[in-house]
Write a structure and sequence with these properties.
heterodimer; A: alpha+beta; 4-stranded antiparallel β-sheet; 3-stranded antiparallel β-sheet; 2 helices; 24% helix; B: alpha+beta; 8-stranded mixed β-sheet; 7-stranded mixed β-sheet; 13 helices; Archease_dom (chain A); metal-binding (chain A); calcium (chain A); Archease_dom_sf (chain A)
């Protein structure tokens, strides 16, 4: 699990006895959410050869920033299980009260598994907040 | 919250009641099994659970306790329904009715060995597991999926994928009767429709095991176990459907709890009174997921049974199927009064004592089988329920993690793991070797010490020790 870190934006997984914990940071709230999604995907997937992707878009809303982070990751998990698709690229932008999620999706059949598959986002320790000069988040997922 | 931990003899510790705790905490574990690493929140979670409205007697931790979210994993808490006692989806966990079933083959190790490679090949092909591998059965429509949510393992057996003993030896005879499908959201149904008959990933597995030692002949005979016998152990739950239900209802109860004057120290402990529309709604949805989990394990048993028959000619008889993530309404004589309690067991197995009316007649004299899986490289244990279990007839459910997945991948390479398991005579068919290193034996507590602590604390009695021969993981 090599950390994908830079001072400006990045993500890393952090130890937790049973589950997957991801920290992410970026200049904007939306990019921080996108980094968290990349951190979750990096924990269990490995994409080998380039493959044709299909773009999916949706709006996600929630009543707080932390819940918005959870809702975006839940959307990715839902699409993985209900449609058999995972993002190879993700973009999050503002959209009214929530965010717009754009994903380049591929079939789970062409994605290699390198870790336990996440199944839900826990409210335990869930955080997305603005710090001095950046946004940062923590999220724990059940695997 | 400040934790005041006091050793209460060599086998257990007490967390003293401090501000906000309505009852003390009790950990049924010697000091060496307690998660005391700096930063570990397990014992704080035991104390947090003790703040839940209506909790009675104590917030309990089993010997395999480790850090969860809201409740610790290996946590047991009962609330008094008549006293405003709450139900908390976090006290059940995301994987509703995750559990273990054990099947015993009419085959010994000598009879199995010539067939082992072919059997592992066949199971490898037919048992869905890991990322995106679907399930053994796709419901033709919503009506059939609803029938699974109402009928559990009964539905599967009635459709020709099992025998009557599969229901006699399943907790609740294969299904709970109070499932409320109207409380299950469309997204949960969509996730569940693709995964009926699948193991999943992480710590879930299907193992071929050998009964290495019988420690209680009378119980083992009643369970259908003997020394030298081959068994199949299956560990999995309600898959994405259960997770979606848990997430939905945590959010719903979190929004509603203030109306009941409830605030909790961790958002994942969201709760409302059992006797509230939100509480009843969750219990109805949870029951539907519990039935899905039993149907899931029944489908996997059916596939394992067919593989065994085809390759070895041997049959598989169900020893028992029991959940370790569930809340149940149980009427009990508790602390001088007869009460209806909502008993949350998260990473804890129900362990009914001999004579309990919910036992099938052929187990009435010996108690309920309890399964404590170890790891893919170490033993698993069968215990039986005993009388006077302080923790509302609950027992440990596994070895309990000590390493994060992070640390396991750092400490163990797949090459070392493969070599260790090969030396131990264990054949492993993982979806991904890199993924399976997260489940390396070193990542868990010593299961021998865990079951010993369970026995010394009166949670169960050892019946048999099983060792792994073949392991399928997702």
């Amino acid at each position: 699990m090599s950390p994908q870190e830079s001072p400006v934006c990045g993500h890393r997984s952090v130890p937790h006895t049973a589950d997957l914990c991801v920290e992410a940071w970026a200049v904007t709230r939306e990019e921080c959410i996108a980094e968290a999604v990349r951190g979750v995907l990096a924990s269990f997937t490995e994409t080998s050869a380039p493959t044709a992707a299909v773009r999916r878009e949706c709006e996600v809303r929630a009543d707080s920033d932390a819940r918005l982070l959870a809702a975006v990751i839940e959307e990715v998990i839902y699409r993985m299980e209900a449609n058999g698709e995972l993002p190879v690229d993700v973009e999050v932008t503002t959209a009214g009260a929530g965010v717009r999620l754009r994903c380049e999706m591929v079939s789970t059949d062409v994605v290699g598994q390198i870790g336990a598959v996440p199944k839900a986002v826990s409210m335990h320790g869930l955080r997305l907040a603005q710090e001095a000069d950046r946004w940062a988040c923590n999220v724990t997922l059940d695997v | 919250m400040e934790i005041r931990l006091v050793e209460d003899g060599p086998w257990r510790s007490r967390i003293e009641q401090t501000d906000g705790m309505r009852v003390p905490g009790v950990a049924f574990a010697p000091r060496e099994l307690l998660p005391l690493e700096p930063g570990d929140k397990s014992l704080e979670q035991v104390a947090n659970v003790a703040t839940l409205p209506g909790i009675v007697r104590a917030s309990y931790a089993m010997p395999d306790i480790h850090w969860g979210y809201g409740f610790p994993i290996g946590g047991v808490a009962a609330t008094d329904v008549a006293e405003g006692g709450v139900v908390s989806p976090g006290g059940v966990g995301f994987d509703i009715s995750c559990g273990v079933r054990l099947l015993a083959a009419d085959l010994d190790q000598e009879g199995l060995l010539p067939h082992m490679p072919a059997l592992m090949d066949r199971l490898d092909r037919v048992i869905p597991r890991g990322l995106g591998r679907g399930g053994l059965w796709k419901p033709p429509g919503r009506a059939e999926l609803h029938e699974v949510l109402r009928g559990g393992a009964r539905y599967v057996v009635e459709h020709g994928h099992g025998v009557p003993r599969d229901l006699d030896r399943c907790e609740d005879q294969g299904a709970v009767d109070d499932a409320d499908v109207s409380q299950v959201a469309e997204r949960a149904l969509e996730r569940g429709a693709r995964q009926v008959g699948s193991l999943g990933s992480a710590n879930h597995f299907l193992e071929i095991q050998l009964v290495d030692a019988v420690l209680d002949e009378r119980c083992a005979e009643a369970f259908g176990l003997r020394a030298g016998q081959i068994c199949v152990m299956i560990h999995c739950g309600s898959r994405g459907l259960g997770h979606e239900i848990c997430g939905d209802h945590v959010r719903r109860l979190d929004s509603a709890q203030r109306r009941y004057g409830i605030s909790v120290p961790d958002a994942q402990l969201a709760c409302t009174p059992v006797d509230s529309p939100e509480g009843r709604g969750y219990l109805g949805a949870m029951a539907a997921a519990a039935n899905y989990a039993r149907a899931n394990r029944q489908w996997l048993s059916d596939a394992a049974r067919r593989a065994f028959r085809t390759v070895t000619g041997a049959d598989l008889d169900l020893v028992y199927d029991v959940s370790h993530n569930l809340a149940k309404l149980e009427t009990r004589q508790t602390d001088g009064a007869r009460r209806t309690l909502c008993v949350h067991r998260k990473g804890a197995t129900r362990a009914l004592p001999p004579g309990h009316p919910d036992l099938p007649p052929d187990l009435a004299a010996v108690g309920q089988p309890v399964f404590v899986p170890g790891t893919m490289g170490t033993a698993s244990y069968v215990l039986t329920g005993v009388a006077d279990n302080e923790a509302f007839d609950s027992c440990c459910h596994g070895a309990g993690r000590v390493w994060s997945r992070h640390r396991a991948q750092r400490e163990i390479t797949s090459g070392v793991l493969r070599s260790e398991l090969a030396d131990a005579g264990v054949t492993v068919r993982p979806t991904s070797w890199r993924s399976v290193t997260e489940e390396a034996p070193g990542a868990y507590k010593d299961v021998d010490a865990v079951v010993s602590a369970g026995e010394h604390n009166g949670l169960g009695r050892l019946v048999a020790r099983l060792v792994p021969l073949g392991v399928l993981k997702g």
